[in-house]
Design goal:
The complex is a heterodimer of chains A (343) and B (136). Chain A has 343 residues and is of the alpha+beta class. Chain A is built from twelve helices and nine strands. Chain A folds into two domains: 117 residues, 2-Layer Sandwich (Phosphorylase Kinase, domain 1), CATH 3.30.200; 213 residues, Alpha-Beta Complex (Aminoglycoside 3'-phosphotransferase, Chain: A, domain 2), CATH 3.90.1200. In chain A, helix 10 packs antiparallel against helix 12. Chain A starts with a helix and ends with a helix. Chain B is mostly helical and 136 residues long. Chain B has one domain. In chain B, 73% of the residues lie in helices and 0% in strands. Chain B contains six helices and no strands. The N and C termini of chain B lie far apart (38 Å). The model of chain B has no long low-confidence stretch (mean pLDDT 94). The chains are: A alpha+beta (343), B mainly alpha (136). At the A-B interface, helix 7, helix 11 and helix 12 of A face helix 2, helix 3, helix 4 and helix 5 of B.
């Protein structure tokens, strides 16, 4: 999308509309909302940054909104409504997970809805900088441990406490869903089919079932010189085996080129599991982590296939979507490496 | 001389994007322009390598699905045979899948971290995958 298209896509988002939405926070007029700008994003998800300027304070905020209803986009795109996503952040915060504070939830019938407004946290989010800049050397040395501890805290949230829209499927149901997607997208990859067959045959029995972030990886984490500052992007949250969140963080696609550091390109398995064990009192074994790395690699392949579908259907006919669709072979090569010696 | 070759046009547009357009842009438009130039590089590599990759897939379908009718989509046919269980992965089939994926990766993104790792782990398959002709 060009910057003109980005700006045009969110016609409803104005300083006036935001000031009305934030009246309870003390916004009295449009000039309380300043430096409004759209950050990058797809056709379905809009992320805006702005400052809420009151008499004695200036607060950096984020608006997340989705002008389309869930279901209007491809099937592998999140089905979690933004209003339910917003309800997860306080639950995670109560367990000690660092997340933005949700200031107001925008219902679908409101002019800016569905969506929510939250605090804009400081910290670096670009994986390239987190993995390479000297200023994050100390942070990198214990980030894997912090991630393990943070996930253990999140995993205390039981399914019974969640909004009913949060997906809660068995592993077998999810693998069936993956097969349906492979079928829908034309069964083009024998490697994807091989991997899915392997995942069915080697499915672990999970002793725990809890809320998962679902996209807990470098790129969705804010980091400062001391380490983890905030966990963002909760749109793929769902219930499942806690080992999934740990294995996902180790997926090669999320190591951003630093393949020798299995945890996000910055840490080792032992650090991640030690951090998890220190909080949870237990940790998954490496074989189960490996299983979820395979699941993650296939999932990335399905995301790429979905991007091709969004492009071809015209739902989001942008160069970005078409180009990500060419990254299918990354998932295939990751899968063949992961399954080497295990078939 | 003949008319401009398709690959020459692709190279010329890439040069235009990278050298003339990109320096004038920043932020999201600069990013997208890099994606555009990179996409043309993928097309250029695919023009050179597609025929060999297709021949490899057809040879694989002929070998592992000898009773099936000829198909324009041999990789799909192999995937469907894996799906219904009529084809089980043996070592040779896995070798073929590695070679085809290495060839596809050489087109799509030869800088992907796993590409180097895979060629080191499977040197014989990597040697096959870098040949112009195909041998399963």
């Amino acid at each position: 999308m060009s910057s003109e298209q980005l700006a045009a896509a969110g016609d409803a988002v104005t300083s006036e509309a935001l000031a009305i939405a934030l009246a309870a926070q003390g916004a009295e007029a449009a000039d309380c909302v300043q430096q409004l700008r759209r950050l990058s994003g797809g056709a379905n998800m809009e992320t805006w940054a702005f400052e809420l300027v009151l008499e004695n304070s200036t607060q950096p905020l984020i608006l997340r909104r989705s002008p389309l209803q869930p279901g209007q986009m491809g099937a592998a795109v999140s089905q979690l409504p933004l209003t339910a996503e917003a309800a997860l952040l306080p639950l995670a915060a109560a367990e000690g997970v660092p997340v933005p504070e949700v200031l107001c939830i925008l219902r679908p019938e409101e002019p800016l809805g569905p969506g929510y407004i939250m605090t804009r946290e400081r910290g670096e989010g670009l994986p390239g900088r987190i993995l390479a800049d000297d200023r994050y050397t100390a942070a990198r040395s214990h980030l894997a441990e912090q991630c393990g501890a943070t996930l253990a805290r999140l995993h205390r949230v039981t399914p019974a406490r969640l909004p009913r829209e949060v997906p809660n499927q068995t592993l077998a149901e999810r693998l069936d869903g993956h097969q349906q997607l492979l079928d829908r997208y034309g069964n083009a990859s024998p490697v994807h089919q091989l991997a899915l067959n392997w995942l069915r045959k080697h499915a672990p029995t999970a002793e725990h079932h809890c809320l998962l972030h679902g996209d807990f990886r470098n790129g969705n984490l804010l980091v400062d010189e001391q380490g983890l500052v905030a966990v963002l992007d909760w749109e793929l949250a769902h219930c499942g085996d806690p080992a999934e969140d740990l294995g996902y963080l180790c997926g090669n696609v999320w190591r951003f080129g630093y393949s020798d550091k299995p945890v996000g390109g910055f840490g080792d398995y032992a650090q991640l599991l030690a951090g998890y064990r220190a909080v949870a009192g237990w940790a998954p074994d490496l074989e189960t982590i490996h299983y979820w790395e395979v699941f993650c690699a296939l999932g990335w392949g399905l995301v790429c296939l979905t991007m091709i579908d969004l492009y071809r259907s015209g739902a989001d006919a942008t160069l970005e979507r078409a180009a990500v669709g060419r990254r299918v072979s990354e998932s295939e090569l990751d899968l063949l490496l992961l399954l080497d010696g295990k078939l | 001389m003949s008319q401009t070759e398709a690959t020459e046009l692709l190279a010329a547009v890439q040069g235009f994007l990278r050298q003339s357009v990109l320096p004038q842009l920043e932020g999201f438009d600069a990013y997208t322009t890099r994606v555009a130039a990179n996409s043309l590089a993928i097309v250029t590599r695919e023009i050179a390598a597609r025929g060999t990759l297709d021949a490899l897939d057809h040879a694989a379908a002929a070998r592992w699905l000898p009773l099936s009718p000829a198909t324009e989509q041999p990789a799909r046919a192999l995937g469907l045979a894996l799906r219904d269980g009529s084809l089980q992965p043996d070592a040779d089939l896995v070798s073929y899948l590695r070679q085809r994926t290495l060839r596809q990766m050489a087109i799509d993104n030869p800088r992907y971290s796993a590409f180097k790792q895979a060629r080191q782990r499977w040197p014989e398959i990597a040697a096959l995958a870098s040949e112009q002709g195909s041998r399963a």
